[in-house]
Amino acid sequence: MYDIKIRDWYLITYPTDTLGEELNPGVTFGDLFDTLDSYGDVYKLLGGDADSVIRSRCFAKLAELMDCSYDYIYDQWLRSA
Fold first, then answer.
1. Which of 79, 67, 70, 73 is nearest to 1 (CA)?
2. Which of 32, 37, 41, 79 is most buried as measured by Cβ atoms within 10 A of its Cβ?
3. CA distance 75 to 77
4. What are 16-49's pLDDT values in tens digits?
5. Does the model's pTM come out above 0.85?
6. Residue range(s) defining the domain that contains residue 17
């Protein structure tokens, strides 16, 4: 389940958001989890012109996949800032 590629998911889920085309094509939700877990740079991981809307949508999907709250994911991200 964590091997879902973020760009593929994003383009299907938000087809009118053209910034999705610029996301790193090889990054998975597992990579996003690992980046958060190691306090890495989420924007660098996602690539392109990822903005707070894209980040928020990806965090919401990761929370769904992990069966946890969005706040849990968001708080992990805040620790890396």
1. 67
2. 32
3. 5
4. 999 999 999 999 999 999 999 999 999 999 998 8
5. yes
6. 6-80
